[in-house]
Design a protein that fits this description.
By secondary structure, the chain is an alpha/beta fold. It has 15 helices and twelve strands. The chain has helices spanning about 10-25, 40-45, 75-95, 110-120, 150-170, 170-180, 190-195, 240-245, 265-280, 310-315, 325-335, 350-360, 375-390, 390-405, 410-425, and strands at about 5, 30-35, 50-55, 105, 125-130, 200-205, 220-225, 250-255, 280-285, 300-305, 320, 340. The protein has a five-stranded parallel beta sheet with strand order 3-2-1-4-5, with helices on both faces. It has a five-stranded parallel beta sheet with strand order 10-9-8-11-12, with helices on both faces.
Length: about 425
């Protein structure tokens, strides 16, 4: 039995997959804690994991320039400053999360550049578990570049530049954390290159159904399949949702997760109008945007819901409209239903393009274009394409069957047990 600490930071989609992974490790006999923000304490404890607090909770740090809101002319610079401040605050709490008896660190993409210093100072083995591809490759451009290929040379160059940008974001936090841990000064780039040179394993928590392993990645960079958010085996959809599903044909899900804060009224009206024009029923998930279909008596073909496991809801849908975060994109594929991608920012255009290339999604509608006089017509047309094209649903079902053969959490467990056996060989 190993005392394992998982660290993850960000929004729901950055945290929830690690609850399922942690539950799998716990079922194998390990003692598992998950360090993350206060907003997810209930989620962590429900999965049977110990909760440890990390600062910088995004639910309490949202600002006027958050993704999905218009930014000022200096918006990119503002976002970089905000990201660096988020990381510095995160670094102040990360060292406190690891106890003296921690035997293994499992690190998300956001926490890994900080966790490596903690592992060095405490002599704790670690394993990086990102949810998106981060290592440069000629096969595709960096996930934050919008999903458009720049050619093999251009893709690799952009990938290296992306890593340097990340190094810059972590520079202040690295300096402060290393000083606190009593480590000699070292830049994020130096520490990153040291880990790369050591050839340490990195297990990526997504499926090759969506992203085949790049041909030019070094050995040890592996794609193992998704680890899914935990939910109780006896979980059921709320009665109000079951009643709505029973009252008519399968509806379309519309939700933007942690995106589009403050745009709920406009998006709700747009979604309702598009659903009516496409002659389909709809379920609107409130999320951070605050989507709402209004009072049920106003339109019996629309329903507003809060947090519901995608694993239970998506298979009951005719199609799903969402922002294409990594976890939501994978959940749609897993459910075998077509997607209408509305990517907002960061890696979302990348996943939207992957879904479309796989044939399980309509052409992406960038969020910034989901406004103006033609927005309702454009979304309505996509809804009709998604719900009335048998070939797209066939592609979705075929992808779901492939995804069902994968077990990412068990692949992580195998590597965890290999690492811990190497650290503590039998006497």
């Amino acid at each position: 039995m190993t005392k394992i600490l998982i660290t993850a930071a960000g929004s729901y989609g950055d945290i929830a997959p690690y609850t399922g992974l942690g539950a799998r490790l716990r079922a194998a006999g390990h003692e598992v804690a998950l360090a993350t923000h206060d907003s997810y304490a209930t989620l962590v404890r429900a999965a049977g994991l110990e909760f440890r607090r990390l600062p910088a909770d995004p639910r309490t740090r949202r600002t006027a320039t958050e993704p999905g809101r218009p930014s000022s002319p200096g918006g990119n610079r503002d976002l970089m400053r905000q990201a660096a401040a988020f990381i510095r605050e995160l670094g102040t709490g990360l060292a406190d999360a690891a106890r003296e008896d921690t035997g293994l660190l499992l690190l998300s993409a956001t926490t890994a550049p900080l966790g490596h210093h903690l592992a060095e100072a405490r002599g704790i083995p670690f394993l990086d578990l990102p949810l998106v591809p981060g290592a440069p490759t000629g096969d595709f451009a960096p996930v934050v570049s919008g999903g458009r290929s720049l050619g093999r040379w251009g893709n690799r160059a952009a990938g290296r530049l992306s890593l340097r940008v990340i190094d810059r974001l972590y520079a202040d936090a690295t300096r402060e954390l290393r000083a606190r841990l009593g480590l000699p000064p070292a830049t994020p780039r130096t520490v990153r290159r040291r880990a790369e040179a050591a050839g340490r394993p990195v297990l990526h928590g997504f499926s090759e159904v969506l992203v085949p392993r790049p041909t030019d990645w070094r050995p040890g960079l592996d794609i193992v399949g998704n680890w899914w958010p935990w939910h109780a085996p006896d979980d059921r959809l709320p009665p109000v949702v079951e009643d709505f599903l029973a009252a008519g044909p399968p509806p379309v899900f519309v939700g933007f997760g942690s995106m589009a804060g403050g745009a709920g009224e406009r998006l709700s009206a747009l979604a309702a109008a598009a659903l009516r024009r496409a002659k389909v029923r709809g379920i609107l998930q409130s999320g951070w945007a605050g989507l709402s279909a209004g009072h049920p008596s106003t339109d019996a073909d629309l329903l507003t819901i809060g947090e519901v496991p995608h694993a239970l809801l998506f298979p009951r849908m005719a199609a799903v409209v969402h922002h294409c975060g990594a976890g939501t994109a994978a959940a749609g594929v897993r459910a075998g239903v077509p997607t209408i991608p509305v990517p907002v920012t960061a890696d979302q255009p990348f996943w939207a393009a992957r879904l479309a290339a796989l044939g399980v999604a309509t052409a992406p509608i960038p969020f910034k274009e989901l406004s103006g006089d033609r927005a309702v017509a454009r979304l309505s047309h996509a809804l009709t394409q998604a719900t009335e094209a048998p070939a797209r649903r066939d592609h979705a079902l075929a992808a779901a069957h492939r995804l069902a053969t994968e077990d990412g959490a068990t692949e992580v467990l195998k590597t965890v047990e290999h690492l811990t056996a190497a650290e503590h060989p039998p006497a």
